[in-house]
Specification:
This protein is an alpha/beta fold. It has one domain (about 20-155): Rossmann fold, CATH 3.40.50.2020. Helices cover about 20% and strands about 35% of the residues. It has three helices and ten strands; from the N terminus they run E-E-H-E-H-E-E-E-H-E-E-E-E. The chain has helices at about 15-35, 50-60, 110-120, and strands at about 5, 10-15, 40-45, 65-75, 80-85, 95-105, 125-135, 145-150, 155-160, 175. The strands form two sheets. A six-stranded mixed sheet has the order 5-4-3-6-7-8, sandwiched between helices. It is globular and about 45 Å long. Bound molecules: inosinic acid. Inosinic acid binds near residues 106, 108, 109 and 162. Inosinic acid (IMP) binds next to strand 4, strand 6, helix 3 and strand 9.
Amino acid sequence: MRTVQEQGHLFEEWLTPEQINSDVQLVADQINKDYEGKEPLFVVVLNGAFIFASDLLKKVKVHSEITFIRVSSYWGMASTGKLEFLVPLQQSVRGRDVVIVEDVVDTGLTIHQLKAHMRAEGATSVRVASMLFKPDKLEYNDAKPDYIGRSITNEFVIGYGLDLDGFMRNLDAIYKVKQ
Ligand code: IMP
């Protein structure tokens, strides 16, 4: 099993690139089915979701658009509880079927606030596709993702876009912190 070290923590490989690929394919299959004949707007949440979005959206076959938003609520390994819009929406969501693409839903604060924002901006529907979901940590019920790559227990993970203070996003697998 592969391991990496970052900031004094040891991380062990938890999802291999092959496992990730099949999880992402299952998410894409559901989206392809649900959005057939529609024209969704995918809103990718930077920075963490960029690798998941890249893999997922290559597998999505429906006629669609992709835009980006950048938010930040984390410092180190704990949420600050406050969402900052570092790069706001660049494209109108009015009248659109929006699919937010996220790396991980943890407390749900980010998605809770983003969904409210999209609805306030006039989106027709708002759904969420997240590579990972931590159900035990969810504090906002409306933030449960509609499409989930994999659910995990309450552990900190890195790789495949997920970072620890900006580092380790480029790992090709997802690693779990070893307690
Ligand atoms: P939430 O708002 O509490 O749901 O947190 C969502 C954001 O926190 C994600 O988009 C990530 O950027 C970050 N985050 C939550 N858990 C982890 C983790 O295990 N590793 C890296 N980032 C995480």
